[in-house]
Amino acid sequence: MEGKMDAEENPDALWRREAEAIDLESYTYDLPDDRIAKYPMEVRDQSKLMVYNDGSISHLRFTDITSQLPADTLLVFNDTKVIPARAHFRKETGAVIELLLLHPELPTRVINDAMLVQHSCVWECMIGNKKRWKAGDTLSNVIPVNGQEVHLQVSYHDYEHNLVKLNWDADVTFLDLVKALGEIPLPPYLNRDTEEPDKETYQTVYAHHDGAVAAPTAGLHFTPRVFDALEQKGIRKAFLTLHVGAGTFQPIKVEKVTEHRMHSEQVVFTRELIQNLLQSVGHVVPVGTTSLRSLESLYWYGVKLFKKETTAFNIEKLYPYPWKEAELPSATQSLQAIADYMDASALQEIVGETEIFIFPGYRFRLCRGIITNYHQPGSTLILLVAAFVGKDWKTIYCEALAKGYRFLSYGDSSLLWLNGGVS
């Protein structure tokens, strides 16, 4: 009885007890290696499509997606573009050091701007074979870039925090440099080397803003043919940019899921997107978990503006928990607070950071449905799907396995409708 009274007096204590009681074992399933799609479909839009709606499941091809979306739907896409973020350097000793670019630190943390930097920059990296690359050592390479030889030197800016400084001697941008130096970093679970076709197949057809180290893979199924069909039906589309980080592949290794470290990812929203959302509240369907996390983060940014907490866009991992519904603005009020702030500040876009963690118990604010692939067992993305459709997530995944669906990044697709609607 005493515990019940404490929970009533302190809703935060109740929420934390329920969240910390989430058993990760309940969100795993057996995924045989031969069910992981190691390569994409020859024709993108011929992938399988499962449609889930309030317990009902149907099986189609992705080209049928238009027939499954109401005409008033607003599809929201993540137009980030994967950069060749993995590079290898061979030391004189023969040791090979691998760098995977994660996030720019200097002279700017804004990824779109960091792509245009010349001569010198600092990035946070994952470092393979770090024990062979000591503090004070410099890696060197000569790279042909746009018809000229560029001398590159790589050293530690901060050894403990894996901050790496790159210096090069030519008037070429960082993006030009990495395109000449690096390779597309495929997800580790594909367990194969990057091949030439991956440069095209591991990008969406609408990829635009360079900066991701992983593709927003739900969008890989879209083709000009599908876009034409959507346009003929009158279904509108809008774009945001979330530069997907390597953290999307990090497994949960802690007993209490709330203690899992969510890596911060950079997201860019335009004033045009806010207006489209305002006109489509209750009819928004994100393409992929990155778009969904971005949109839900956007709602919580509007909460901060509505409550005059801050104008900085930084959504902490557990900021959405716990709130009393009476304390929160509606989706329209949240979006309008953002629109008003952007108008008053003469802003056409906002760059922010989010580490939002969506797991069972979360209440969705902007998203009515989601188009998404099939995710790793026991991952943060499985928890997100379970938050979206409830306990039926396991039925969906068992059905996909039974019907021969292909899993993970190059795998098949699903259209999931939110149980109970948006709040």
Could you give a quick summary of the protein structure above?
By secondary structure, the protein is of the alpha/beta class. The chain contains 11 helices and 18 strands. The strands form 4 sheets. Strands 14-3-12-13-16-15 form a 6-stranded mixed sheet, with helices on one face. It has a 6-stranded antiparallel sheet with strand order 5-6-7-10-9-8, covered by helices on one side.
Descriptors for this entry?
423 residues; alpha/beta; six-stranded mixed β-sheet; six-stranded antiparallel β-sheet; 18 strands; 25% helix; globular; disordered N terminus
Fold and architecture overview:
It is globular, with a radius of gyration of 22 Å. It is built from eleven helices and 18 strands. α1 (2-9) crosses α2 (11-20) and α8 (289-306) packs across α9 (331-344). The chain starts with a helix and ends in a 6-residue tail after the last strand. It has 423 residues and is α/β, with parallel strands linked by helices. The protein has helices at 2-9, 11-20, 111-114, 174-181, 198-201, 224-233, 271-278, 289-306, 331-344, 380-389, 392-402; strands at 48-53, 56-61, 74-78, 80-82, 86-90, 96-106, 120-128, 139-145, 148-158, 163-168, 209-212, 236-243, 265-270, 284-286, 314-315, 349-354, 369-372, 413-417.
